[in-house]
Amino acid sequence: MKVTKHKKARKYLSFYINNFGFREPLLVLIDGTFCHAAYKARIQIEDQLKKYFLSDLKLIVTACIITETENIGGPLVAVCQLLKKYLVHKCGHEKQPISGSACIRAMTKTCKYIVATQDRDLQEWICARPGIPLFYLHNSLVPTLVQPSEASVRAAASKTQAKVQVREVDEQRLAVLKRKQGISDTSEQHPMKKVRKIKNPNPLSCKKSKKKKPTDKRDPVRDHAIEKPKRRRVRLPKHVKEQLKNNTTMC
Ligand SMILES: [Zn+2]
């Protein structure tokens, strides 16, 4: 499968998940025509669909679909055997089975199914209804999820519009309630803005500087600069010394 095709499939599937409440495991409702085409093309339906959607999914049939295929018989016997392997959802027509196509139309009204069919009439019916993903084998060979129909796109847009309107009405009601309660909107405008408290000065910044203890490691250059100038010893000449000595003895 080409990457672009796979991307498209994920995009279309996301559309149905986001707008119409589709969830995993995806439920793929298969009719006799699709199963017959897959059988002829030797496609392993479950494996191919899981690879295509990259999602957990369940293959679903109804009693009506099985009965219809059974009644045709002949070349569809093997197809009927395949259909019986899938999960059978109750459709409410067990006592009086209807055609597979009519049964699928009824089932899609109550549950979120991706419908896998090669039936052209049923395909057209699905495309005209919003919120029903259509899956088929293109040229009876290539698994393809059809692009969301115009009906689906329009329905999704109107849902979004309705959500916006509801939100606007809610906001208006909230504003009226606030006014009644006397809550000003100014605090709402800046919910994250906090009133700054007047704080005391940082005690660490006011701490008295400790006197540095004398250390053994002294900086000789710095110490030399701080050191007091030494008193110079004046050396007296010898004869002056003797003169001074004589003066002291005379006294
Ligand atoms: Zn039915």
TL;DR of this structure?
The chain is of the alpha/beta class and 251 residues long. The chain has helices at residues 3-20, 32-40, 45-53, 63-72, 77-83, 100-110, 120-128, 150-181, 186-189, 203-206, 220-226, 238-250, and strands at residues 26-30, 57-62, 87-89, 114-116, 134-138, 142-145.
Key terms for this structure?
single chain; 251 residues; alpha/beta; Rossmann fold; six-stranded mixed sheet; 6 strands; binds zinc ion
Task: Break the fold down into its secondary structure elements and pairings.
Blueprint: H1 3-20, E1 26-30, H2 32-40, H3 45-53, E2 57-62, H4 63-72, H5 77-83, E3 87-89, H6 100-110, E4 114-116, H7 120-128, E5 134-138, E6 142-145, H8 150-181, H9 186-189, H10 203-206, H11 220-226, H12 238-250
Helix pairs in contact: 2-5, 4-5, 4-6
Bound molecules: zinc ion (ZN).
Walk me through the structure.
This protein is of the alpha/beta class. The longest helix is centred in the middle third of the chain and has 32 residues, at 150-181. The relative contact order is 0.10. The chain has 12 helices and 6 strands. Strand 4, helix 7 and strand 5 form a beta-alpha-beta unit. Among the domains are: 3-149, Rossmann fold (3-Layer(aba) Sandwich), CATH 3.40.50.1010; 154-181. Helix 4 (63-72) runs antiparallel to helix 5. The chain is elongated and about 160 Å long. Bound molecules: zinc ion. Zinc ion (ZN) is lined by residues 62-64, 91, 93, 98, 103.
